[in-house]
Write a structure and sequence with these properties.
The chain contains twelve helices and nine strands. It is α/β, with parallel strands linked by helices and about 290 residues long. The chain has two domains: about 170 residues, Rossmann fold (3-Layer(aba) Sandwich); about 110 residues, 6-phosphogluconate dehydrogenase C-terminal fold. Bound molecules: NADP nicotinamide-adenine-dinucleotide phosphate.
Length: about 290
């Protein structure tokens, strides 16, 4: 496809993911112009100072009508209100996408606001860090990572091809998926691990003061890795759990059963069972390294 892929791209929310994509689009010259809508004056100033976008507005009416591609990059819980705010200003033929970590809720909350003649293609980059805000964006965040798109039946092929080309150009491997399947896969690969990290770090925090200090002092890589994950944005993760309720509850149930099994093996001194389990999980790590997703 010839470059640029879009004339104007508009970001609704220019935090970690929005500003990373804006930077990547600039580096790869995928659009002529980048604009954003952002309510926080401080974030507007930072994004402009860093040159993440060309223009930034508080009012969607001033930014959205120019855009051929609108990227909603706010927490999932804000998406319904965002949809209502941008809908009257969307240009005919434009594409609306998002980067939310759950997809069924986005289809449910944003879908109904999208007017006829505007293409709606939900998406989720499997990339990110625990940092937030426009200064934390990284131009190469998406390089070698998966980008899941969950187009709905009847999606315009040309709009899908252009969006696929954009994510491919920033280095992502694009995969198409049903929204429901996406939510089930992410419940186990991302949402449950975050919940476990929040729990472990929370448990350590609840221990009496002396022990707490020692937890920090002697934190080995295991606990340290959990604290990094548990430092992820509280609003974003609140919204993920509230909006992927069924799939997350299902994997918590399975996880609890497996944990109980390990607990029994420890109680009854079943070393062989423990070793067997740990050998299987080691193989999973090797597979992730082989797939270059480590
Ligand atoms: P972030 O850095 O906190 O940025 C969020 C942006 O949304 C900010 O510009 C924020 O503006 C804006 N926002 C917050 N509440 C809003 C509201 N009620 N109405 C309008 N705008 C609002 O978060 P992020 O990490 O980029 O996450 C954005 C989306 O990406 C989320 O849906 C998340 O699920 C998804 N995602 C995140 C990651 C990750 O690792 N971080 C990975 C993949 C997908 P203010 O400055 O005014 O608050």
């Amino acid at each position: 496809m010839s470059l640029p892929l879009y004339d104007t791209v508009c970001f609704i929310g220019i935090g970690h993911i929005g500003s990373s994509l804006a930077r990547a689009i600039r580096v790869h010259k995928l659009a002529n112009r980048l604009v954003a809508v952002e309510s926080s004056p401080a974030a507007r100033e930072t994004a402009l100072e860093l040159g993440v976008v060309d223009e930034i507005f508080a009012d969607p009416a001033l930014a959205v009508p120019q855009a051929d591609l609108v990227v909603v990059s706010t927490p999932v819980g804000a998406i319904e209100a965002v949809g209502r705010a941008i809908a009257p200003h969307l240009k005919k033929g434009a594409t609306v996408t998002d980067v939310g970590s759950v997809k069924m809720a986005v289809v449910r909350d944003l879908g109904p606001s999208i007017p006829d003649g505007v293409h709606f293609i939900p998406g989720h980059p499997i990339a990110g860090t625990e940092h937030s805000g426009p200064a934390s964006g990284l131009a190469d965040l998406f390089k070698g990572r998966w980008q899941i798109l969950t187009p709905l039946p009847g999606t315009d092929q040309q709009a899908l091809d252009s969006l696929t080309a954009l994510w491919s150009a920033v280095g992502s491997n694009v995969e198409l998926m049903e929204p429901q399947h996406h939510d089930r896969v992410l419940a186990i690969t991302s949402h449950l691990p975050h919940l476990i990290a929040y729990t472990i770090v929370g448990t350590a925090t609840d221990l009496e003061t002396t022990l707490q200090q020692e937890v920090i002092k002697f934190s080995a890589s295991g606990f340290r890795d959990f604290t990094r994950i548990a430092a992820s944005d509280p609003v974003m993760w609140r919204d993920i759990f509230l909006n992927n309720r069924e799939a997350v509850l299902e994997v918590i149930q399975r996880f609890t059963e497996d944990l109980t099994q390990l607990q029994r093996a420890i109680r009854w001194g079943e070393g062989e069972a423990l070793e067997q389990k740990f050998a299987t999980t080691r193989a999973v790590r090797r597979a992730i390294i082989d797939a270059k997703q480590a």
